[in-house]
Design a protein that fits this description.
By secondary structure, the chain is of the alpha+beta class. It is built from six helices and 14 strands. It starts with 33 loop residues before the first helix and ends in a 6-residue tail after the last strand.
Length: 258
C-alpha cells in the first residue's frame, strides 16, 4: 500500500521506489518506472488511486491530473481523503484520451479494445501462474478471466485455451550456464496441430515478439506436423537484466543472442 504522505508523488514524472543506487539501472527487471507509465496516463485520462497500508486504520483515495493531485469535484480539497478499502492499491483509469480527440478517434470500438486487453491479461496470467488475476468489463458482474493463486501454468492454459490444448502439452525446462539463460515453458506434442501458430513468448517476464524465434519454432515442428498446420508454444526466458536492450515500450533483442 501507499502511505498517505506519499500520495503527492504517485504520478510525478520519473518517480520510482525501485532504485537506490545508480548501478541499479543495469539490474532492473521490471517494466519501467511508475513515473513513466502512470505519469503519462494521468495526462490523458482521469486517474484515481485508492490505497491502504498494512498498519493503517483505513484506506485513502486521491484523484490525479497531469501528474498532480486534483480535487475529485470542483470545490473539494485535493488532499487524499479517508475511505473504506482493503490492503493494497487500486488504480482506476477512466475516460482515456478524453483531452486528445484525434487519438481517441483512432481507437477501435469498446468491444474490440477490450478483446485486445483481455488477450494481454490472459497471456500474463499464464506467465504469472500462482498470482490470482481477474478481468471483466466495467459495470458487469461476470468475469471473463479469473485465475487463482493455487493455479499452475497448465491450469491457466486449461482455463484460457481449453482442455483439448492443455491435454496435449509437454513441460519444457532448460538452462545454459555460459549465457545464464533459463528457459521454461509448455509446448504441444506431435499429436496436436492447429490452423495458426500460437507462440506466447516472454523474456524476463515481458511479453515480446520475435520473428526469428517464431521462424525457428515453425521449422522444428514442420518435421512432425501435417502440412499447413501449426503448434501451440509458450516459452518463458530469463536472461541477465543487462542482456536485452530495454526501452520504455518494448524489448529489443540482439539477433546474435536469438
Amino acid at each position: 500500500g501507499i502511505h498517505r504522505a506519499d500520495f503527492p508523488r504517485v504520478c510525478e514524472r520519473f518517480a520510482t521506489s525501485k532504485l537506490r543506487e545508480y548501478e541499479d539501472l543495469s539490474q532492473i527487471e521490471t517494466f519501467g518506472f511508475r513515473g513513466e507509465a502512470l505519469a503519462s496516463i494521468s495526462h490523458v485520462a482521469h486517474v484515481s488511486v485508492t490505497s491502504m497500508t498494512a498498519d493503517a486504520a483505513c484506506a485513502h483515495r486521491a484523484s490525479f491530473s497531469d501528474g498532480l493531485l486534483v480535487p475529485p469535484k470542483p470545490g473539494e480539497p485535493a488532499e487524499p481523503r479517508p475511505c473504506a478499502g482493503t490492503r493494497g492499491t487500486t488504480i482506476a483509469v477512466e475516460d482515456m484520451f478524453y483531452n486528445v480527440p484525434m487519438r481517441r478517434a483512432a481507437m477501435k470500438g469498446a468491444g474490440e479494445e477490450y478483446t485486445r486487453l483481455l488477450q494481454v491479461v490472459q497471456s500474463y496470467a499464464l506467465d504469472n501462474a500462482g498470482v490470482a488475476m481477474s478481468c471483466k468489463k466495467a459495470a458487469e458482474h461476470a468475469t471473463e478471466l479469473h485465475t487463482l493463486a493455487s493455479h499452475s501454468a497448465l491450469d491457466v492454459v486449461r482455463l484460457v485455451h481449453g482442455s483439448q490444448v492443455a491435454a496435449e502439452l509437454l513441460p519444457l525446462e532448460a538452462t545454459d550456464e555460459e549465457s545464464e539463460l533459463r528457459l521454461r515453458g509448455l509446448v504441444s506434442n506431435a499429436n496436436f496441430s492447429q490452423k495458426r501458430l500460437t507462440l506466447l513468448l516472454f523474456i524476463n517476464k515481458r511479453l515480446v515478439e520475435s520473428s526469428h524465434l517464431r521462424r525457428a519454432v515453425e521449422e522444428v515442428y514442420a518435421q512432425y506436423l501435417p502440412k499447413h498446420t501449426h503448434p501451440w508454444v509458450y516459452l518463458s526466458l530469463r536472461l541477465p537484466p543487462a542482456s536485452p536492450r530495454r526501452t520504455t515500450h518494448r524489448v529489443q533483442l540482439h539477433h546474435s543472442r536469438e
